[in-house]
Amino acid sequence: MVDKVNIFWFRRDLRLDDNVGFYKALHGKHPVLPLFIFDENILGELPEDDARVTFIFDELQKMRNQLQEHGSSLAMYHGTPKKVFENIISEFEVQNVITNHDYEPYAKDRDAEISALLEKKDVGFFTYKDQVIFEKDEIVKNDGDPYVVYTPYMKKWKATFSEDKHVKIYYTSQVLDNLVQHSLLPNVSLSDMGFKRSKIEVPDYDVTPTTIQEYEKTRNFPAQEGTSRLGPHLRFGTVSVRKMVKKAIAKKNETFWEELIWREFFMQILWHFPKTVDNAFRKKYDHVPWRNAKADFEKWKEGKTGYPLVDAGMRQLNQSGYMHNRVRMLVASFLCKHLLIDWRWGEAYFAEKLLDYELSSNVGNWQWAAGSGVDAAPYFRIFNPTTQIEKFDKHHSYIKEWVPEFDTDDYPEKMVDHKEARERALETYKKAIN
């Protein structure tokens, strides 16, 4: 076994190439021990057949196989990060731990705890920016305040961006010889961790030139395969955001590029305003007296509201772990406005089901739908779930795919009348926030 090692801790960056922290580690003085921790603090809340755990596990096995071709491997542990690092430090002579930044509240607390532990043991802790182009307060107003409206943020983002500077690719293939030469590093199985393989698979992403070029034309129609399916891959880092931005620029597709910027907008909002995970950004919206009828919530979850586009979206989510973005806006609006159910209930359900669940985007979009967030839709904008069909699924192709009993006697009655629910929502919101 080698004398001294540097550890690279994989987290939301499940790839070997164009990974900033891994690149920096491989260029260090000591051999690199690659590490991944299945964090008990996170996994404890998940169902045993969670599709995201299966996806992460499979991606790690691919990486492990690639690293074994270089005489090394990937150490995989199941436990709390603190306990895992205490064990590793007792087993290896660790010089530095290197990883990439993570911005969510839990991640910030976890990293502070690990940093303090390593400092006591005289081990260095270095982190790098990898999952975004701009982070934290790199894009702020001239007075230093964060942007809370997307369009000016996006304009400043683009004005600051330089292709030469911000999308450099960090190739690692030439330095993979600087790895710990030990191919039998610790491994864990799904069953070791109390999980079983999910039947839901994360689909491959599609960023072919055609998808990017046709993006504006197709992305709003849920029956068409017009989206990139990039969400889970950006979430878990199986692709590099720098390469995706490069593709958007190469194809001169502003809409596709701006979707990537939306992701960073919500990330910096969460960084600056971590309380928005549980509290309305616009505080007066925490006074809305939600009905929170559990029976209504169950109908919404099961896709049995009597509104076909809402039901199609919820059933697509339940069966595939995915829901088309246009439909996400509708089902969220329906829950908050038509049913007057707290957006936090919907956010938690999406967190449980979505393959591409990203805390910042999920909270940001749910608060947008509820009218309570940054850059929010005004509370009086209430989607009509029937006219939305005419706009986005005129031939009922998407509805028929997910709601086979549509247009038969087996399809449920509408659980609420649109006009009455709309008026109830307007009255309830108006009283609460004025």
UniProtKB/TrEMBL annotation:
GO MF annotation list: deoxyribodipyrimidine photo-lyase activity; DNA binding; FAD binding
SUPFAM superfamilies linked: Cryptochrome/photolyase FAD-binding domain, Cryptochrome/photolyase, N-terminal domain
Keywords from the UniProt entry: Chromophore, FAD, Flavoprotein, Lyase
Entry keyword annotation includes Lyase: yes
Classification via PROSITE patterns: DNA_PHOTOLYASES_1_1, DNA_PHOTOLYASES_1_2, PHR_CRY_ALPHA_BETA
Cofactor(s) recorded in Swiss-Prot or TrEMBL: FAD; (6R)-5,10-methylene-5,6,7,8-tetrahydrofolate
Annotated residues for binding of FAD: Y215, F256, E259, L260, I261, W262, R263, E264, F265, F266
Site (Electron transfer via tryptophanyl radical): W290, W343, W366
BP terms from Gene Ontology: nucleobase-containing compound metabolic process; response to stress
Organism listed in the record: Marinirhabdus gelatinilytica
Name of the protein in question: Deoxyribodipyrimidine photo-lyase
Cofactor notes: Binds 1 FAD per subunit.
